[in-house]
Amino acid sequence: MYLLGLGIILLLMKYLDIDPVVSWSWLIVLAPFGLAVAWWSWADASGYTRRKAMEREDKRRLDRINKQRDAMGMKRKR
Predict the structure, then answer these.
(1) Of 43, 47, 50, 78, which one is least surrounded by beta carbons within 10 A?
(2) pLDDT (tens digit, 0 to 9) for every residue of the chain, 78 residues total?
(3) Which residue blocks in the chain are alpha helix, DSSP H?
């Protein structure tokens, strides 16, 4: 996501003729978009995206269980 944001900022700076970026090559300005595509491809192919989603779901589930245990006055599990 950071690469996409950087690419948008550089693209706007190039389009609006802001000084340091206006003299750069279009290849350099558009490179963050290519890197973002490469990152997303790798993350999807390696299972990184799904693993992070599962970790978030597990954390939400454990938080919900611990909240219910606290409400019943029971000890928390780790």
Answers:
(1) 78
(2) 899 999 999 999 999 999 999 999 999 999 999 999 999 999 989 998 888 899 999 999 999 998 998 888 887 666
(3) 2-15, 19-22, 26-46, 48-72
